[in-house]
Design a protein that fits this description.
Shape: globular
Bound molecules: pyridoxal-5'-phosphate
Protein name: Aspartate aminotransferase
Distance between the termini: 54 Å
Catalytic activity: L-aspartate + 2-oxoglutarate = oxaloacetate + L-glutamate
Keywords: Aminotransferase, Pyridoxal phosphate, Transferase
Helix content: 40-55%
Structural class: alpha/beta
Number of strands: 9
Subunit structure: Homodimer.
Strand content: 5-15%
Pfam families: Aminotran_1_2 (PF00155)
Amino acid sequence: ESWFAAAEYVPPDAIFALTAQYLKDPCPLKVNLGQGTYRDHTGKPWVLPSVRQAREQLLAQGLDHEYLPILGLRDFRERAAETALGSAIYSGREKLAICQSLSGTGALHLVGLLLKKCQRPLPKVYIPEPTWSNHHQVFRSLGFQCESFSYYDYERMRLDWDSYLSVLDGAEAGSIFIVHACAHNPTGCDPSKAQWREVGQIMKRRSLFLLFDAAYLGFNSGDLDEDAFAIRHFIGELKLEAAVCVSFAKNMGLYGERVGCVVMALNSHVIARNTQSTLEMLQRSEVSNPPAFGAKIASVVLGSEKQRRTWYTDLKTMSGRTREMRESLHDALIACGAPGTWDHLKQQSGMFGFLGLSPEVVTILREPSSSSHLRDAQFYSVYG
Ligand code: PLP
């Protein structure tokens, strides 16, 4: 008998399992279309010039390895919050609670813990379908009941706007909605500004709580202010309480350094002070102190006009290249005579291109030898 006889075997996470399969595959033509990590034109991870410069600056100054405070590196927290909210909203910072987190995932988990501490009975959590798969896991593991709502119209390959509105209208007051602030994963399909305004009106009228997953700010358009529109509209114009889970994994390429931040916009400075203190207690019992190195890098990048400008250029490089790739893929599919329409590819934005292929087609592309069509000479003469 073991103390852990009740532990279940949980199948590997689909995205990471796919990466493992990809690494094992000997085919020289393989392409990894799974994990959301940016690659340069040689297929290699890209260390952003802004990040490289910040790293060199830090190393030249000499780094120590002391603990950060429980809430995280102060400069980083302040600069991250200002980046997400913009300076106009950030200047009213007495109504904010800000806590450094283990990247975006850690931010979501901390906000989940906070909501659990403050809400009885636990509200329902509404999550778009499709979404980043960990949303369900993070909130279910905390005991929340998660409801998926249809976000994407698979037939017309666009936002399922009618469903979105009807779910907002039908959800119990006090429910939590997880929304992707921009660059929806995996559809690359976001509400327009007018649609965001409508979402905001309903949320306000129906007393729903909005949790922004902001994992791709700047990655959508290359312009942070543009990409943060929804966050700033809800908090700055509608004056709604909201949680913003900021990640610098993608937009600074700091994936493995786990650089993130929880920014809570609250109704009063007393609530903000108490919320921040509760976050501090929760952080203490979870990780004690967040990691320092990545936060120091991000803080340097965000800390001066010059460094920020370099970062903005990096964001344009990444978002521009993904846009070009999307367009080339679209044009190549048309040139090959691929059946159907592919305009949706050009309308999408952010890191992901949602092709809309059936599972059968995906299997054939992944394992060409499994398909008689793709085993023929013509295929290999074109792609081989
Ligand atoms: N949210 C979304 C929508 C994501 O796609 C990801 C990562 O792929 C994350 C959050 C979490 O990323 P990280 O924890 O690496 O910041």
